[in-house]
Write a structure and sequence with these properties.
The structure holds two protein chains of two kinds.
Chain A (H helix, E strand, L loop, with lengths): L4 H95 L4 E11 L19 H13 L4 E4 L2 E2 L6 E4 L2 E4 L2 E3 L3 E6 L2 H9 L5 H10 L2 E12 L12 E2 L3
Antiparallel strand pairs in A: 1-7, 1-8, 2-3, 2-7, 4-5, 5-6
Chain B lengths: L1 H17 L6 H31 L1 H30 L2 H21 L5 E10 L5 H13 L4 E4 L2 E3 L5 E4 L2 E4 L2 E3 L3 E6 L2 H8 L5 H8 L6 E10 L12 E2 H11 L1
Antiparallel strand pairs in B: 1-7, 1-8, 2-3, 2-7, 4-5, 5-6
The chains are: A alpha+beta, B alpha+beta.
């Protein structure tokens, strides 16, 4: 037995070495296997995520394509509507101009009227011929329309379809607004015609007579440019409505 | 790996069967095997590492690309959705309706639309002078007429009653008595105002005896359209010039 003793010791070393090897082998065998499982799992997850994202992308792209179509449709619709809107705005501007809602400038005439300043009139004199009356102003305005005026104003009041020129006491009212002398009636239009008609002695006979006899002031000026204010009142239609029989 | 295990077992078996003295061989062999194993181990791990670096980043890059791309797509979708929302039919419709209503009102004011409503009819046997007729129109406007027609001619701001060689003319049309004014508005108020003591109708009746003017309330009258063209050749709007200068700024 003594002869074998060293052999036993060495066998022991071998066994230990074998165990170590076995452990290493265990590690060797399992390590790559387990890491393969991990990365497979990971990869599967990544694949799933990619698939999900790709699916989402597809949906998004479809939705965007659909929205673009919708938007294009809206834009086309809006373009044609904008055209309608433009036409409507143009038409509205033309109607506003015609209705007197726009301030205007252009060549024309100015007819100004003022009371006589004849002083020292004997008492009991009839003052009527010496002052400007609402009908005087009315006659001037109507004469300007008759002469082909495109637009007419008196002082800061534009003459529109609903305008009435009347008096309250000795005050002349235009568009329900008090005017004070001098009364400056301006008209835009062909200045030659306007001037010729305004100067024609066949018209405004009463006024011209009072200018001669009572010193009433009437001046008619040819103007390269007159400025007419816009009508500031409203057009209320409570009773009238569009429609026929 | 099974091969390595086999070698170890064979060595162990030989030692037992042959009883060989292997004192110098055993540690050497063990060391060798350990070395081989370690190398194999490292190689395997290295390979695993490489494969994971080779397969890992590619999907990761795809993944992050997709995440970013989808985020952008979602933004695009949101932008498009809000753009479409701006084309709301209600606000568009309201704007359009408001414009059309304003336009219709102005067209009524300008006499370009046939209109109907209650009012009064003023009947005068005539004849009257142009100035008297003009005063009557003014009187009707003064008592609140919203629209006026005279013998079938709609009167607008520029309508003037003038005299010509053949008699009276309105809107370029001959005007012969009797004169019938149709004025839309509150029938009761208008009749009261027109027939008041000292009013224009009373004065006219006094001036022209036997030509009595009659005022009749009407529940419904239809006024025709003003047909004469109106062109602005000399007048320029000041407002629109201002707008243009603001826009070009």
């Amino acid at each position: 037995m003594g002869r074998w003793a060293p052999v036993w010791g060495r066998s022991l070393a071998l066994i230990l070495g074998g165990v170590c090897l076995g452990l290493l082998l265990q590690v060797q065998v399992y390590t790559p296997a387990s890491s393969t499982v991990d990365s497979n799992y990971e990869q599967a997850q990544v694949r799933t995520a990619i698939q999900q994202l790709e699916g989402e992308q597809l949906d998004l792209k479809e939705a965007i394509a659909h929205l673009r179509e919708q938007l294009e449709h809206h834009q086309q619709l809006a373009a044609s509507e904008t055209e309608t809107l433009h036409e409507l705005r143009d038409e509205l501007a033309a109607q506003r101009m015609r209705a007197g809602l726009m301030a205007l400038q252009g060549p024309g005439v100015m007819v100004s009227l003022d009371d006589s300043d004849a002083a020292a009139l004997p008492p009991d004199t009839d003052l009527n011929p010496y002052i400007v009356h609402e009908y005087d102003l009315r006659d001037v305005v109507n004469l300007l329309w008759l002469a082909g005026a495109e637009a007419v104003a008196v002082n800061e009041e534009r003459i529109v379809a609903s305008t009435s020129i009347y008096c309250v006491g000795s005050t002349i009212m235009v568009n329900d607004t008090r005017l004070s002398p001098p009364y400056m009636a301006r008209a835009i239009g062909d200045p030659a015609t306007l001037y010729a008609v305004a100067m024609d002695p066949a018209y405004l006979r009463d006024l011209r007579r009072r200018v001669q006899q009572h010193g009433l002031k009437l001046t008619i000026d040819w103007r390269k440019e007159v400025v007419l204010p816009a009508y500031k009142g409203g057009f209320a239609f409570e009773y009238a409505q569009a429609g026929g029989p | 790996m099974a091969g390595v295990e086999g070698v170890v077992l064979e060595v162990q078996t030989r030692i037992r069967k042959q009883g060989l003295w292997l004192g110098a061989w055993v540690p050497g062999l063990v060391c060798l095997l350990l070395g081989v194993l370690l190398v194999v181990q490292f190689r395997t791990q290295g390979a695993v590492g490489r494969t994971s670096t080779a397969t890992g980043p590619a999907p990761m890059v795809v993944l992050s690309t997709l995440v970013e791309a989808n985020a952008r797509l979602r933004q695009e979708r949101a932008a498009l959705t809000s753009q479409i929302a701006e084309y709301q039919p209600t606000s568009r419709q309201e704007r359009l309706t408001a414009l059309v209503e304003e336009l219709n009102r102005l067209r009524i004011a300008n006499g370009l639309v046939e209109i109907m409503g209650p009012g009064v009819e003023v009947h005068i046997e005539g004849p009257l002078s142009p100035l008297e007729m003009q005063d009557l129109v003014n009187e009707l406007r003064n008592v609140g007429a919203e629209a006026i027609a005279l013998n079938g001619e709609r009167l607008v701001a520029s309508s003037v009653i003038a005299s010509s060689d053949e008699g009276l003319v309105v809107n370029g049309q001959p005007l012969t008595p009797p004169y019938v004014f149709q004025a839309l508005g509150d029938p009761q108020n208008m009749e009261t105002a027109l027939t008041r003591q000292g009013g224009l109708l009373m004065l006219l009746s006094l001036a022209h005896e036997g030509q009595g003017a009659t005022v009749t309330q009407r529940t419904r009258m239809v006024l025709p359209v003003y047909t004469r063209p109106l062109q602005f050749q000399y007048a320029q709007p000041i407002e629109s010039k201002r707008t243009v200068s603001i826009q070009t700024r």
